[in-house]
Amino acid sequence: MSPISIRSLQAMKAGQEKFSVLTAYDATFAQLAADAGVEVLLVGDSLGNVIQGQDSTLPVTVEHMVYHTEAVARGNRRAKRPAFIMTDLPFMSYGTLEQGLESARKVMQAGAHMVKLEGDDWLIPLVESLGRQGVPVCVHLGLTPQSVNKFGGYRVQGREDDKAEAMLAHCIALEKAGTDLLLLECVPSALAARISAAVSIPVIGIGAGADTDAQVLVMHDMLGLNSGFTPKFVKNFLTDGRNVQQAFAAYVEEVKSGQFPAAEHGFSA
Ligand SMILES: Nc1nc(=O)c2c([nH]1)NC[C@@H]1CN(c3ccc(C(=O)N[C@@H](CCC(=O)O)C(=O)O)cc3)CN21
Ligand SMILES: CC(C)C(=O)C(=O)O
Ligand SMILES: [Mg+2]
After folding, report:
1. Ligand that comes closest to the CA of residue 49
2. Residue 55 and residue 257: Cα distance in Å, rounded?
3. Which of 32, 131, 173, 232 is most buried (CB neighbours < 10 A)?
């Protein structure tokens, strides 16, 4: 089978077929997830939390992202049907156009197929510039963990009417600027549904309800490996006597069928 491309993901949205995204940080799990049918492997800066033991994603550097992207790309290459690899640009590595282009160059040369940036319409010049250089971009809105200190904690975003309207307008402007994918984290399910219907690019959700075009989870969380606090949007798939491969396959199947996420995994306005 040919590897998943940005065009396959767009075709899935057009055909109303849900796709699944899972974080991966190493070669072994990357290959397993791709072989279970996960379409997109996200080399997330959540590696700060789950790999490094940090309290936030802020200490993660471009060099860390390069190291893990290289490992994921090697494992993905061995998969029967390679997935699409998306890598987070970490905290303060894309504040200027020049910095953003240089950080993107490093992770793309490490094996990413796409970069993900946290922000909103302020990212438009960088999205346009990356597009001209041939770099697909996902913009992550809503609860953007790199802004935890500005938010004063990990809180649902877009609950107030004016904030919801602004998020929708930013998403439409980002699509117009050439953004290839959107990711909404911890936003009310009804707002995520409105945004997904308003744009023609695929929208990935986490804590954003069932009506986005795709779902993402942190791998450790969906294997029940989180220490202590579990966010509301997490579901453990390593249950019912499943092994890790079967847990990945169950996640893919439940996203595809719409069984995951259930109402209890989402937030109301
Ligand atoms: N293991 C792991 N899983 C993640 O999903 C994740 C990370 N790490 N690290 C980076 C960020 C941080 N994330 C978080 C962290 C906490 C909440 C949280 O406290 N959520 C509350 C909602 C609070 C509210 O109602 O406003 C919850 O109950 O889920 C959400 C996302 C998501 N990302
Ligand atoms: C939680 C997802 C969306 C992410 O950005 C990450 O894993 O870093
Ligand atoms: Mg991230």
Report:
1. 1
2. 34
3. 32
The alpha carbon of residue 51 and the mean position of all alpha carbons in its chain are separated, in whole angstroms, by 17
Digit-coded pLDDT (tens) for 209-250: 999 999 999 999 999 998 778 999 999 999 999 999 999 999
Mutation test of ligand 2: which of 115, 206, 234 has the most ligand atoms closer than 8 Å to its C-beta? Answer: 206
What residues have CB less than 8 Å from 103, skipping those under 6 apart?
62, 89, 90, 93, 94, 115
Is 116 annotated as a binding-site member?
Answer: yes
Q: Is 128 noted as a catalytic residue in this protein?
A: no
Which tens digit of pLDDT belongs to each residue from 196-211? Answer: 999 999 999 999 999 9
Backbone angles phi, psi at 207, to 5 degrees: 65, 35
- Count CB neighbours of 128 within 10 A: 15
Which residues touch 175 (CB under 8 Å, ≥6 apart)?
A: 182, 199, 200, 201
